[in-house]
Every structure is written in C-alpha cells, then in structure tokens.
C-alpha cells in the first residue's frame, strides 16, 4: 500500500504573482505547471499510489488562494481514490465560514502555510481554530521549514512551534510537511515526544545530504514510525519521490551510520490512513466521509 499524503492540485492562477515573482527562479525558471485530474491519475497509477491526499494553498498576504470548491470538484473528477484537504489562512476574518464550508464538503484536513500567511502558530488567538479542527476530526498539515520567498517569515515555520501547539492541543493530529527542512533534527525530537504529531517526507530527498541526516536521525531517535510518505506532486511525481528516497539508502561512508532499506520501505508503505485517522475513500465517498450533507453515489 502507498498513501501519498502531500500533493497539490492548485493552478498557476491560484498563486497570484507569488510564484512568478519569488519561486520560479529557485525552481529552474519554469512556470508553475498546470495539473489536471487526468495528470494526477496518470502519475499516481504509475507509482502504484493507492490513495492521494490533495490540497491547494492559502496565504492571503501573499495573494495566494485555492478555493475549497475547486479542490472538491477536482477530487470528485479523479479516478484515483483521493482525500481532499482545504487550505485556510487563519488570519482571514472569515476563517470560521471557510472551515464550515470545508466541513460541509467533507474535507478531512487543512493545509496551513504560516511562512507565507505570516501568522504565528503560537498566538493564543488561534487556539479556537485548533480546537475546532480537533472537534471535527480534521488533520492540520503544516508547511514547515524553508521558503524561497523574501516575504516569508521563517521564524514561524520551525518545528518547535508545533511542539507548543501539541502541548496545548495534544489530541489534535498534526503533520509537519517536508520534515521541517532544514530543521529535521528538531522535527525528530518533536515527533518523539508528541503522540499525535507526524511528519511527511515530501521534498526531503531533493537535498540528499539533508535527507541522509534526517533519516539517520529518525532511526536514532526512533521516530521512523512517525514518518509518512508524500511526493509534493507536481514538483516531483510519486515515482520520482520514491526513487529519490530509495537512493538515500544507498549512501555509505566507511563505518558511519546509514539509512536502512527497511526504513525507506516502511515510510513508503506505511498506513498513513490509520496513523492520521483518515477515512478511506476506497470504502467511503471522499466527499461524504466527514460531510454533514452527503452526496448521492447512485
């Protein structure tokens, strides 16, 4: 089984000017690709992905926004079993309305982007937001770590932030994307102590030495069982992400520690649905799973 917990369906226009102005140069100068349900199905099938978690982005101060309805429509058109997550900027005055809409649409989680939204996850004003997520069984998936954007606020994008959120809300399921790169060592110690905090490995093997230390660290801190697979499609296809992860297990340097093959395979094939307590769209309609207004499937 392969569950891809980190993939993006947002379109170039959802970026506003942010990608062209601040990201394009860091990613080879190419414009952001157009993704379709058909391209999703093709790359997921190529890699043998059983279920994909699909979301966009929201960061109001950066002019970035993927409408919840767009994600719901996108997922409903895919053949690949998929779980929609919404994207919400909790600095928006209407975040409650956005979250109500997402719950009504049956979304199972929310993608948060503090580094571009410029919100401080530890500010007490957001405790209501976290409590609402938890009470509705929704996962908080954080972009955690670096950004190429000069407007980004790195101070609010570090794994230790999530430790404090978890101390206040220990039953809220949280996922730190990208293992919090480049602060993966901090990520491992946060994972070790917080029962409902996990991390995905999306983008991690794109920087092989960082990935090597991150995964060796996970072995030494015994947090491999808190890591879940994510591709970061369309930046990488799931097949590319899997191949890149496996390549890290080939590193050898004398008698130094190394990343075990079993570590990589455990991450690729972990049951992220069970770990994150997500409803399986192969059993339930992905939009009905948490919805208060189920759709007909006849």
From TrEMBL:
Residues 3-251 form the Amidohydrolase-related domain. GO terms for cellular component: cytoplasm. The keyword Lyase applies. It comes from the Bacteria. This is Amidohydrolase-related domain-containing protein. GO terms for molecular function: carboxy-lyase activity; hydrolase activity. It holds the Pfam family Amidohydro_2. GO terms for biological process: secondary metabolic process. It comes from Agrococcus baldri. Keywords: Lyase.
